[in-house]
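Try it yourself: sequence plus adenosine-5'-diphosphate, in.
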Amino acid sequence: MISIRGLTKSFRGAPVLRGIDLDIEDGEKVVVIGPSGTGKSTLLRSLNFLDVPDAGQITVGDLTVDAARASKSDILALRRRTGFVFQNYALFANKTAKENIMEALVTVQKRPRAEAEERALSVLRETGLAEKADSYPAALSGGQQQRVGIGRAMALGAEVLLFDEPTSALDPEWVGEVLDLMRRVAEKSQTMIIVTHEMQFAREIADRVVFMDGGKIVEAGPPSQIFDAPRDDRLRRFLKRVG
Ligand code: ADP
Ligand code: MG
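Structure, out:
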């Protein structure tokens, strides 16, 4: 249901994605691991054109977008099918938790405000934040802010959710509640692509783990292969480093 073909991206002539091919099934949880600077964020960001890829094709459901000639409407359609969860939450500081979740529903999905509000409140209940609906991000803990960030992505009803190191910016005390929420999202057979350094979590949640190095997928397989019987030397060295 998601298919990535020959995805490439350079920044100022420096190649960051060197031809990524990846197929992801409906409901599959794919965890992406790898050294920093290796293109993991760029891969996720390219999937909804937060970074504009140079070449390749992206298919999500019935939509195929050719990176080299994507129209505005292609990009909008792709963004409707993907929800993004940022490392630093990226909430609007001047909007409440509820308004943060409503924002894309109103502006991107063009839903009536009343319907968007109802949806936001329902998602806030699901994320255990009903009583924080009218709180501004500054009044929330890091864990609560990231749960709003996840709720915002969930609310879109997107075909795939993209998580870019969702717990890396958190104080250790808040990591557990965010991972718990991600487990609950996963149980709803939501397709998820997750970049994380939480190896225990990766092992537990992933149907497939993808190891990237130098802008390429070096090895991919079930957690049992990647963590217990890694084949590639670079993957072995990486796992030793991250312990
Ligand atoms: P990762 O998420 O695996 O740590 P990134 O995808 O963030 O890696 O970055 C890969 C490489 O691309 C890095 O060398 C980074 O400096 C570079 N890069 C990422 N985004 C930009 C950008 N907007 N402009 C210039 N270089 C970038
Ligand atoms: Mg990154």
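One thing you can check immediately is this: Residues 11, 16, 34, 36-42 surround adenosine-5'-diphosphate (ligand 1) (CB under 6 Å).
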